Amino acid sequence: MKYIVTLNGNDYEVDVERGEAILQSVVPAAARAAVPAAAAPAPAAAAAPAPVAAPAPAAVPVGAGETVSAPMPGSILNVLVKPGDAVKTGQTLLTLEAMKMENEISAPHDGTVGQVLVAKGASVDTGAPLVTLV
After folding, report:
1. CB of 105 within 8 A of CB of 86?
2. Could you tell me the pTM of the whole model?
């Protein structure tokens, strides 16, 4: 069964078969009006929804570095770095609250903070870009 899923303002065509969700394509906004009503997902009954593969985070420009992404949905409690800061492997970049627990998001390697893409208090989804390292 095909569904149109909107995530962070982008529409994705997802094909769900036998409990697997496969991202088929990104649906342009103009094509959204052309999707028949029958293709829209029906409200879920008692069954739990099938997991949907999260789309890749927005592409980082070439040479912009590695993106550190949110491992789970939550709220940003504290941002501990700013652009230009030198960081070491394992250094805490920010704190993410998820399910009433504080999770420290750490630098995967030594580098310099290129961009901080979130602010304190922001809500993020799984895979959302948080910080870029160069």
Report:
1. no
2. 0.52
